[in-house]
Write a structure and sequence with these properties.
By secondary structure, the protein is mainly α. It is built from one helix and no strands. It starts with a helix and ends with a helix.
């Protein structure tokens, strides 16, 4: 019975470690995705602003 207890303890430690790594990977993915989405929208807004300023400069 002692062997089963040791196995269960080792297995649970492995399982908790595995779950922690998976959660960290998912969190890193979500943070990276949000940061990239924010950067892309900022670049698009800057590009649109530059085009608008250029058009206004040509018509003036």
């Amino acid at each position: 019975m002692n062997e089963l207890s040791l196995f269960a303890d080792g297995f649970m430690r492995y399982l908790v470690t595995y779950i922690v790594f998976i959660v960290a990977i998912v969190a890193a993915f979500l943070i990276g995705f949000a940061l990239r989405k924010n950067k892309n929208s900022k670049e698009a807004a800057d590009e649109q602003e530059a085009v608008t300023e250029e058009a206004a400069g040509k018509s003036a």
